[in-house]
């Protein structure tokens, strides 16, 4: 383990220069500066694609440093080639600051690269909401980032906008249809446009609009108010905006096998129910084809690189608390054909993101992981052990810069719980202690001791500080774990009733004593269980990521609580039943000190400043 | 003129094959099929950029057939090179079907190309509203189109989405600020985030949100309704969505000189007024830098090609009725350095788009056109002469397929009015009769006779049917006109009061007897005229494009009417005062038979079907 012992600045400099990688010291420079400096020396996307073995027509460049991979011909060409090893990165229950899961994903790939492996990462495209609300990159940090950083964070190749356009087109179609059905007789409707009456129930419109910001002002709105055009200003009703990345269209992009599967799923999205209780879908609104037309490019995964030049695929949705929160199946499939080791990331803690990776994403993809990394920080362990919760944009409480082995030990209960979740899936967990300069030897020793006793591999990793060279211990532990035979098995059978599946997740993954349903949730579940149309639907929970429970303020491993399910959504296209637990909203809010205040553009160079 | 006489199918085939251009016959194939067929043989964007003399780092490819031009280095490199000839394409008052202005722009460039000229076009990016609402391409038609057609029409390189994101971020900042100012004391605000109270007047919020669809349901909405989170669900107030292309951000993109000018203008957008009547800007909300960050790529013009391989730059906003409706100054500036003839397009008729080209766009750019093309169709002339108004999606009335020289002659009054507008600007008009297969020789002879008598060059052009080969007469007339010395002069001095400028446009361009203001409009104008901050503001009228008057049902040259100005908007960033005439809305509606019903994707190839 000597190679991963904390290296002094001088030693580190030598190591990095020997490897031909020159990046700025993260203890002295912010993430944005490190990325901008490395971008001067980055590979073109053409070189990157060559290195991966892509043929030139399989890469669609977007500028000289980003591109899209036309996945269908690659999968055709390499269909018979065996897949590389498949590694998921998950984490303990994070603090509101995040525990460096993307950083570890990138760092691990950089470490595997140093060991001479053909490897790649898949991460999720960041949402404009957090980018504009909370300072910090969703592309890693320190010496483990992906570049080009600013373009990646702002619009990128347009996928989130395409999802938003597809989603909102369904709402345009719904609201126009409701207006026309109100204004015209059956005969007139038929004569004007050959349309039958859908009889949409205005009190049972399921879908809202989307916007990719944190915008509490649009959570609850009234639309269709007459502004002087009488019956031509829409149909007045309650409505809402959700953040785009929580859209069912985004979930579909994450789980679609290909464009044909995507098209079929888009057509099954339930927009509302009619006055007789039947679902009204995007196909009924005759808008599913046009929605798909917006997504033809979005279905192709995006390609950028790590600071050290390994390929990073970026595709589909963040937000594992309110959405599926997985990078796409298409991205993983392509990468597994092109790499010997492919590292993908599932959002937030193992209770939230890994549970969905395990029981939804892998169900649809048919893929099975060879290992799973559980990222932990001494910071989060202290928080679970009793230190005050740190907040973005506020000074880190002093408790986090002083040694406290007792808190760390107490907080390990949360980590051990997540290790247990991964083991329950039949996969070998590798705990990655994502090192901070403030961590002490005794704190780290305690974590290793407890995790090893629980049967997990443990690696201390300094990828933030030292890049791939700092992640060699982690890379070795992961390659080791991949040699073990995985006995990956689902948590529950899809033959089980939805209520039983919810109960299983609540008890076995969250540690709840049981589940309580609101009247609405309960009657909705009854309908679902009685309707054979929902028989093969999956379960996608909406729950806070800040606690194993449904109450974000409960840290550690909460005991003696029951999961409260207030609502149940039906994603007909994705094929998900979505129980909403606790008081979680699909539209986050913007606080009083948002990061957009500090963002600007250097107009001489076009560089974005203050983003990270 | 023999070469442009109607060529038989057989002759046409010979002509096209001789020139090495093979495109499908538009009398037999829809626009989408012609485009898709030509796309099999189109140049890569790399070849196109080479042909234009761009250096490789000046082109940013987006896939292999579209790209962005990094304008700043090109203008630096070629700053001293004299500009090519500058031609604007305008039209008579169109029918709701449009009269082929984009088709003529593309056709003219193809004709100039056949004559061996180095030439280019600049057109505007189509809005998702009409694309999803009304069948038909905004990229020309028949044998005069630009390609790749589907990608161009659906999201393209992301500019409209970037404009929407920038615009809506200002609304996120505004509504969050209003909520926080309501919820907290001055002391708390200052302590939490170092913010002073802006005291925004909720009854004087100027800006709405944007979405790039025709969505009447979002015209008038109430936001910020408490959904159970009490004071954390926003500030309840009336609000609205406008179509994105009408955004002031889009106007700024069209007129900005460069990124620095764009940044400065973005910071001057007036979002609301405070309780003392002072403007509250995006700079006051500390969001202007972040808005600009979304626009760093959007400021670079896009590059595609005609069916016959000439470069087409696409940049900024459509909708000259409710917005400036011009392709960007940056696109024209770059193209004038790279071409001997550059053809740009201003939206709708000369009363609407050309007036703004003349008195706004050229004021900001300092450029002067060498010629202006006025597009007319026998169809529109008949409509102005008394035939029933044709409607999109409905069968064309029989009147349009039968000869009626009298209606054509009567309708020419409208055409002569537009010729007069162009002449008033000091520029030589070239009338282009955009030929339809149903036009008769006598109808065409009458138009030529009347236009020539009014001192205009006239060309019959069959570019829709025959491509560039059909536009040679037009190309020759335009090159001729460009040799005349242009005496381009503004319609009014910017020293004149705003009221006087509005009166001048109403009388001299629209043919009104005068202007009547609503109480609100009048008091707003009084404020504006008394405030030196607005002294150097331009005038950007909002008026229907379907009539010279403010009433879309009045055809020909309406007499004995007064312009009704109901509202006056203030675009502090663009630097426009925007009087809204008649009952025109910034958010169009979706009808009962929208085109999205017929759009779908061929999932085997990724091709979009039914769009055109």
The protein's oligomeric status is homodimer
Principal-axis shape of chain A equals: globular
From the helix content, strand content and strand pairing of chain A, which structural class follows? alpha/beta
What amount of the residues of chain A lies in strands? 15-25%
**Class of the largest domain in chain A, according to the CATH hierarchy?**
Alpha Beta
Query: What is the assigned CATH homologous superfamily of the largest domain in chain A?
Result: P-loop containing nucleotide triphosphate hydrolases
Sketch the major β-sheet of chain A. Answer: 12 strands, mixed
pLDDT averaged over residues of chain A: 93
Which two chains have the most extensive interface, and how many residues on each? A-B, 94 and 94 residues
How much helix is in the residues of chain A? Answer: 25-40%
Do you know the CATH architecture of the largest domain in chain A? 3-Layer(aba) Sandwich
- Model regions low in confidence, pLDDT < 50 over at least 5 residues of chain A: 1-14
Cα distance, first to last residue of chain A? 33 Å
Kindly give the count of domains of chain A.
Answer: 3
Count every helix of chain A, treating DSSP H or I runs of 4 or more residues as helices: 21
CATH topology of the largest domain in chain A: Rossmann fold
Radius of gyration of chain A equals 24 Å
How does this model look, in words?
The structure is a homodimer of 612-residue chains. Chain A contains 21 helices and 25 strands. Chain A has three domains: 319 residues, P-loop containing nucleotide triphosphate hydrolases (Rossmann fold), CATH 3.40.50; 135 residues, Domain 2, N(10)-formyltetrahydrofolate synthetase (2-Layer Sandwich), CATH 3.30.1510.10; 84 residues, Formyltetrahydrofolate synthetase, domain 3 (Roll), CATH 3.10.410.10. In chain A, a hairpin with a 4-residue loop joins strand 14 and strand 15. The first copy, chain A, is globular and about 75 Å long. Chain A has 612 residues and is of the alpha/beta class. In chain A, helix 14 runs parallel beside helix 16. In chain A, strands 1, 2, 3, 4, 5, 6, 14, 15, 16, 17, 18 and 19 form a twelve-stranded mixed beta sheet that branches. A four-stranded mixed beta sheet of chain A has the order 20-22-23-21, with helices on both faces. Chains A, B: InterPro entries: Formate_THF_ligase, Formate_THF_ligase_CS, P-loop_NTPase. Chains A, B: Its EC number is 6.3.4.3. Chains A, B: This is Formate--tetrahydrofolate ligase.
